[in-house]
Structure formats: C-alpha cells, structure tokens
Amino acid sequence: MPSWAAPHKQRLSPALMNDELRELYQSVILDHSRKPRNFGELHGEGCVHVHGDNPSCGDEIDLFVKLDGDRVTDIKFSGQGCAISQASASMMTQKIKGKARAEASAMAGVFRGIITGKDRQPEAEDEMGELQLLEGVQHFPQRVKCAALAWRALEQALAENAGDVTTEEPA
Q: Domain limits at 113?
C-alpha cells in the first residue's frame, strides 16, 4: 500500500484539544440554555416541587419531580438564570428521567465531584455523558453554584421535601 494511503490517526496538540473541548463545551451549553429539554411544570399526585435560588447571581429554578414508588417517572423545570444553570438543569432532567431514586441520588454525588473536583468518582463519570463538559466550572467558584442549583433541588425533591433550597451554605 502506498504510504499516502496508509491509515493514520490524527494527533492533536494539547492546545488544539483544549480549543476543541472549549468549543464543544460552549456549543452544548448554548444549545441546552437556548432550547432547554423538559422545560415546564408538573402537578398532581406524586409530584414534588422544589424552588431553588442562587442569591449570588440571581439564578432561580422550579423543579418538578414526579415519583412513582422508587422511580422518577417524570421531571421538568422552569426558571431563569445564566446559561450554565439552565443548561445544567436541562441536561440533568434528561439524565434523571426514568431512574430509580437511589441511582438519581448517586448521580448527584458524581456530578458534585465533577464540578467541584473533590471526591471524584472516575469510574462513574462516563455514565454522566455531556454533563462531564461542566467540569471546567470547578475553576470558577461562583459558577459551581450555578451548575449545582438544579442538582441541589433534585436532592431535596428525592427526599420528598418540597419547599425551597439555596446554593448558600447554612450559617
């Protein structure tokens, strides 16, 4: 086979890979924030509503989780905020819908590790899909709160504790 026809793998420099990853991150975040999945409200039996806010930047979310026994049968959110908070909520709802309560709770822990860089669970992170793209927020503490807001609301909803949640730590 001629050398020009030999299959080869294109290798990218780390700088180019960072640029490509940054571009992918931006496109996924913008797509989910402009066209959020599972946006809306749920009501009725088995539905838990949690209102969350991030006082440091003004993000607000209303999360509606419909539970049937031990399973999240439906999940929706509404609210307003930065692209990161809205995209995180959108991606979360896609990942959580249909999951068992324990699995959803475990995913919240994995996500927390991804965005904070603490207590990482690399063996479980692959299951998080595009949510892994939010890893970069760990370098921006205020943005960690944006990405975490919907997940804090989810943890409260899974405990069937309707009400309010905030990104601020209790005093």
A: 38-166
